[in-house]
Amino acid sequence: MENTLGSFIKSSVNMKPVPVIGLGSGAAAYTIAKALGIEFKRLGVKPGAVPSSSQIKFLVSDYYTMIEPPVSGIDIVIDGADEVSSTNNYIIKGGGGALTRERIIWEMARERHVFITKEKISRKLSHPLPAEVIPFAINLVQKKLDELGLKWQLRKDQKGYPTFTENGNMIIDIAYANQDDLRPVYEKVKLLPGVVDAGLFIYDVHLHIIEQQ
Question: 187 an active-site residue?
Fold first, then answer.
């Protein structure tokens, strides 16, 4: 991790002008964002950052000036992933529920840096596909998923209550057994009325393998 992280931090802090940084959510994003923030702080710099969740905003606010998504774009995104395909580089995200905001940040970014442990790399994706759904449409979406022959589960917290995103929406986790290519499933899910986004990310990224935290 030291070599990978050290190289990334060195190139990031040397960018001119100081980069605007997109912050994903989750343990990997937090670890890397904090390490980078500490180095910027050592140099007396507090770069602007666009957080994908209130959690990451709270955790690293000492190192970054939090801003709304800028019209001019984002220079670097720091993020993790739930699973990455070794055959086509498809990425599953949304285990933490921030997939919609993370996608917006990814779309605005010039560079996307994804940090994962090697255990998250698979030849064939198997992690459930998260879908963020407007509550008004939750029953309709569940019905449509049944019609598509897809098994699904409404995400709930430890007390059994539905999980809500920071956008006020719900999450459905979708299974897709025996699918060699997840993209057709993703596109069908995205077209369902009431689905805000689904967690298949197909982008050019800088993929960094780090040690287990």
Answer: no
Topology match between the domains 2-120+202-210 and 129-196:
no
Q: Compute the distance between CA of residue 41 and CA of residue 38 in angstroms, rounded to an integer.
A: 5
CA nearest to 91, candidates 102, 83, 99: 83
Confidence (pTM): 0.93
Active-site hit among 83, 102, 132, 147: 102
Distance CA 11, CA 208 (A): 14
The answer as to CATH 3.30.70.260 being correct for domain 129-196 is yes
Residues 6+ apart with CB under 8 A from 51: 23, 57, 66
Q: What one-character DSSP code corresponds to residue 175?
A: -
Model pLDDT for residues 72-88, shown as the tens digit of each residue:
899 999 999 999 999 88
Give, in words, the CATH class of 2-120+202-210: alpha beta
Phi and psi at residue 131, to the nearest 5°: -130, 130
Q: Where are the domains of the chain?
A: 2-120+202-210, 129-196
For 25-39, the pLDDT digits (tens) are 999 999 999 999 999
